[in-house]
Design a protein that fits this description.
- Among the domains are: 10-68 and 209-255, no CATH class; 90-207, PAS domain (Beta-Lactamase); 406-539, Heat Shock Protein 90, CATH 3.30.565.
- The protein is built from 14 helices and 11 strands.
- The protein has helices spanning 2-5, 12-89, 96-101, 103-109, 149-157, 203-255, 259-276, 291-373, 380-401, 404-408, 411-426, 443-464, 497-502, 506-517, and strands at residues 112-113, 117-123, 128-131, 164-171, 177-187, 195-202, 429-435, 468-475, 479-486, 521-526, 532-539.
- The strands form 2 sheets. Strands 1, 2, 3, 4, 5 and 6 form a 6-stranded antiparallel β-sheet that branches.
- The two termini are 79 Å apart.
- By secondary structure, the protein is of the alpha+beta class.
Length: 540
């Protein structure tokens, strides 16, 4: 009671608005609440009822139409099956090829089922489609066992002497997979082979009437909803007009007392200008106990917070400089390791030439001396074979450094050569898949992509302990995608390129650098025990 009676402590807005808004809120609130609650309740009830009835109608129509469609297909299967049996009984036993070549039998078997379906003849024991609407589908379907398990399940069920039906997935001529329904009846065949007549059609033909009914019901629901929403909206507009009129009235009265609050607002303005000029220690000296006083307190608190945030930003800048220095250190380590790798490669080349090629040539030279003096146990043909082996070794060594197939034929043959070399010389089964229209790339881009593939397959050979690998190259209109996947032991991925370098994964870091030079992206997915999948995408 003491705080209510302390008029001087009330906010200015409260002093102005409480008497006027009290009457407004109480009267209009009660009327508005009762009216809008009843209208919305009635509208929600109507919407819920119509929606519930619509959903029930959709479910009932779906069930009945589905059952009707299945009965019709079953009757078609029985009728066509009986025709086929009568035809086969009137003919000598026929082979599969004879059936396919019998145009009259084909005309009996291939009959329409609805708008999109048809009937077909299948031998379930041999898993062979004997006669089909599309001759290209007349084939052995056993390879579809894993691709289309629902279809294969119907094949197995149809091996008995009972009528079978069910839904399944089917692989179309164009490569797409569509859901279908089939009723299957056994055929008595004088020739002895097990035969079944399939009457099948697409599920879309079942759902079309249901979808039309659902659209009509949804349209009716939408129309009802719009009508109810329009009524509620008109009522809301009416109350908004009343509220607006009262607001203008209250605002006009409040303007008479605006001079009471102008002074603290001007003080707040001066404080904002000071903060804007960087004087973050500026404090407002206002003793008001109303909202303006609370605002002044919040303003002073904001200045203190800004000062704290500024100091924090300075600290963050220092941390960023330290991170940048760390990145530079990582780059130096990377360059150092690159240099070490280059020197190791030079040593390997020197050792290869000295330990193998040079030594082999010395041996051949001695054989030639012995041959010239007549003391050689080898013939000229034997020495020629030795020279040929040395030449093959030099050629293979040269191919490892830079295969001529890359310059002569391009990227794809070079990648295929890498895969076949890994299979031939190291026993790792490597497959290649090429998708899209192949095209010539700039020589530098082909070289970098080749080196990425070479490094990836080298990692497979040296580190992954894999037995299989897959190399994919996918050409699209705007990019080329290269991926190398293996079934090896995998590894735990570091968090960044710098960590790749420091952890000794120099090859992966080199791939990242090459991909960045091409303006592309590198994605490596690997987990211990789950193999590795490396993907490079480069714009064309």
């Amino acid at each position: 009671m003491r705080k209510i009676a302390a008029w001087s402590e009330w906010s200015i807005a409260t002093k102005i608005l409480v008497p006027f808004l009290g009457i407004f809120v109480v009267s209009m609130g009660v009327v508005g609440y009762i009216a809008l609650t009843n209208i919305r309740g009635l509208g929600n009830y109507a919407l819920d009822s119509s929606t519930s009835l619509g959903r029930t109608a959709i479910q009932d129509s779906t069930s009945h139409l589905k059952k009707l469609g299945e009965d019709i297909i079953g009757q078609i299967a029985a009728d066509v099956g009986k025709q086929v049996e009568m035809y086969l009984e009137s003919r000598p036993p026929m082979t599969m090829e004879a059936m396919r070549n019998d145009s009259q039998l084909r005309e009996i078997i291939v009959q329409p089922v609805g708008k999109t379906g048809y009937t077909t003849l299948i031998d379930p024991e041999k898993a062979v489609i004997i006669i089909h609407k599309f001759p290209g589908q007349e084939k052995d379907v056993s390879p579809l066992r894993s691709l289309l398990p629902s279809f294969w399940s119907l094949i197995e069920l149809s091996k008995g002497e009972n009528v079978t039906s069910g839904y399944y997935d089917w692989l179309e001529v164009n490569g797409s997979i569509q859901q279908k329904y089939a009723c299957i009846v056994p055929i008595k065949n004088p020739g002895g082979d097990s035969l079944t007549l399939w009457a099948t059609t697409y599920i879309d033909e079942f759902s079309m009437p249901v979808e039309e009914t659902e659209q009509q019901i949804n349209a009716a629901i939408s129309e009802s909803s719009n009508y109810i929403s329009d009524i509620v909206s008109r009522m809301q507009d009416f109350f908004i007009i009343i509220f607006t009129a009262l607001f203008i009235f209250v605002l006009s009265l409040s303007l008479l007392l605006s001079h009471v609050i102008t002074s603290p607002i001007l003080a707040l303005k001066r404080g904002a200008e000071a903060i804007g000029h960087g004087v973050l220690d500026y404090k407002l000296e206002l003793k008001n106990k109303d909202e303006i006083g609370d605002l002044a307190y919040s303003f002073n608190k904001m200045g203190s917070a800004l000062k704290s945030y500024t100091e924090e930003l300075k600290s963050t800048a220092t941390e960023n400089i330290a991170k940048e220095k760390k990145i530079q250190d990582n780059l130096r380590v990377y360059v150092q390791k690159i240099s070490q790798a280059q020197e190791a490669e030079r040593k390997r080349v020197s050792r290869e030439l000295h330990d193998e090629t040079a030594q082999a040539l010395v041996v051949v030279l001695r054989h030639l001396d012995d041959l010239a003096s007549g003391k050689s146990e080898l013939t000229a043909r034997d020495i020629r074979m030795e020279v040929k082996k040395i030449l093959e070794g030099v050629r293979h060594f040269s191919q490892e450094l830079r295969p001529s197939v890359l310059d002569d034929l391009g990227l794809i043959p070079a990648v295929q050569w890498l895969a076949s070399d890994l299979t031939k010389n190291f026993g790792i089964s490597v497959e290649t898949e090429i998708k899209g229209t192949q095209r010539n790339l700039p020589q530098e881009s082909e070289l970098m992509l080749f080196r990425i593939a070479q490094e990836a397959l080298t990692n497979v050979r040296k580190h992954s302990q894999a037995t299989k690998a897959l190399v994919r190259v996918d050409f699209t209109d705007h990019r080329i995608k290269l991926s190398v996947q293996d079934n090896g032991k995998g590894f735990k991925m570091p968090s960044g390129v710098g960590d790749l370098t420091r952890s000794g994964k120099l090859g992966l870091a080199g791939m990242e650098e090459r991909v960045q030079l091409l303006g592309g992206t590198l994605n490596i997915q690997s987990q211990p025990g789950k193999g590795t999948n490396l993907t490079v995408e480069v714009p064309l």
